[in-house]
Design a protein that fits this description.
Distance between the termini: 29 Å
Shape: globular
Radius of gyration: 18 Å
Helix content: 55-70%
Structural class: mainly alpha
Number of helices: 18
Number of strands: 0
Bound molecules: magnesium ion
CATH class: Mainly Alpha
Order of helices and strands: HHHHHHHHHHHHHHHHHH
Strand content: under 5%
CATH architecture: Orthogonal Bundle
Length: 349
């Protein structure tokens, strides 16, 4: 594989996040393992329909993952800096304006109601901080939308960590929620920076380096070890030559609506599918699609884990690996490409 350009990687990351969400959304309510064949059949059905001009542009809807990713990206691009009140307003107003059900988590709605009542003024972090008797949420919601952060602060780890943390605190203040967002950002940044080496990327080294980096740079010490343990499980599976079953992944790593399960599941999906031969049913697909089909297939929260795995994979493989038909079919597909380009332009400046 020739090394994808940085712009292609930025676009692969953001469009990837939307693609993974749109693909996974089809199976969102099933909460169980989806056979690869079923995911592949749906993916191909959309490709075929677009080819036959039987599907309108943007007609495969995304969910809350992409809503919030767009909200964050637009605010960063528009203000050229992080403005907490503006991001809070975007999150909340998008939530209240949606014509279609976006499957937001039930609890985050209370944060949006409070923010609206406050008219997005004053301490916009307060509603999230007060959730769950003050312990805050450790849902995967602040990690699922974080992909614009490593693009906005590319090559600047301290700023990536700080912004991942700040944007998380608008809705998810529990240490596990915040560290999930930080870890997802670090995984994307690492994927953006990976040089294509002879013989391909070493997944075990990627994961080991990621654990070390996370330990070194995270600013949230509480429950920090939880993610170290999860990445340790990933390394054990990567070292094994035996094919891991979905049931086992879900028992050991998990893939549900919590950050501490969904984020490691997404990282695992990217790394486990780097080797094209690992999963026989997926060998014929490019690396990006292997990661996303795999993630959607085994995950309980399949749109979110699919979206996060795709953001990492897109940052590594670049945008050309995403089927053009899906760029057309995904709601917000063109917008994701444009926003990624704007973030890239800001990076160059
Ligand atoms: Mg969702």
């Amino acid at each position: 594989m020739a090394k994808a350009s940085l712009l292609s990687r930025f676009q692969g990351c953001l469009l990837g996040a939307v693609f993974g969400d749109c693909l996974g959304a089809k199976f969102e309510r099933e909460w169980t393992e989806i056979p690869y064949d079923k995911v592949i059949a749906y993916m191909n059905k959309i490709i075929k329909k677009v080819g036959q001009e039987k599907l309108e542009k943007g007609s495969v809807f995304y969910t809350d993952d992409s809503c919030m990713t767009f909200d964050l990206a637009k605010s960063l691009v528009g203000n050229r800096k992080y403005d907490a009140a503006d991001v809070a307003k975007n999150f909340s107003e998008t939530y209240f304006s949606q014509p279609t059900h976006r499957s937001y988590g039930g609890n985050v709605a209370f944060v949006f109601f409070s923010l609206k009542q406050m008219n997005y003024a004053g301490d916009v972090y307060r509603p999230a901080r007060e959730q769950f008797d003050g312990s805050g949420s450790y849902g995967n919601g602040s990690a699922m939308r974080v992909s614009p952060v490593p693009l906005f602060h590319h090559n600047n780890i301290p700023s990536i960590v700080e912004l991942s943390c700040e944007q998380s605190k608008l809705t998810h203040t529990h240490p596990l929620g915040i560290n999930g967002a930080i870890l997802q950002s670090l995984a994307i940044e690492k994927a953006l920076l990976c040089e294509e080496s002879v013989g391909g990327l070493d997944p075990i080294k990627f994961c080991s380096d990621l654990i070390q980096q996370y330990k070194d740079v995270t600013t949230v010490e509480d429950d920090k070890h939880v993610y170290e343990g999860q990445l340790g499980h990933i390394i054990r599976y990567l070292k094994s030559t035996e094919l891991v079953k979905a049931k086992e992944i879900n028992e050991r790593i998990g893939s549900d609506v919590t950050a501490q399960k969904a984020v490691p599941a997404a990282i695992f999906a990217f790394l486990y599918t780097l080797d094209a031969k690992r999963i026989p049913q997926l060998t014929k697909f490019n690396g990006f699609l292997r990661a996303v089909i795999f993630a959607v297939g085994f995950s309980e929260d399949c749109d979110t884990v699919g979206s996060m795995a795709a953001a990492i994979a897109g940052a590594y493989y670049g945008v050309d690996m995403i089927p053009k038909e899906w760029t057309f079919a995904c709601e917000g597909g063109t917008e994701a490409l444009e926003l990624a380009e704007q973030l890239y332009d800001l990076h160059l400046k």
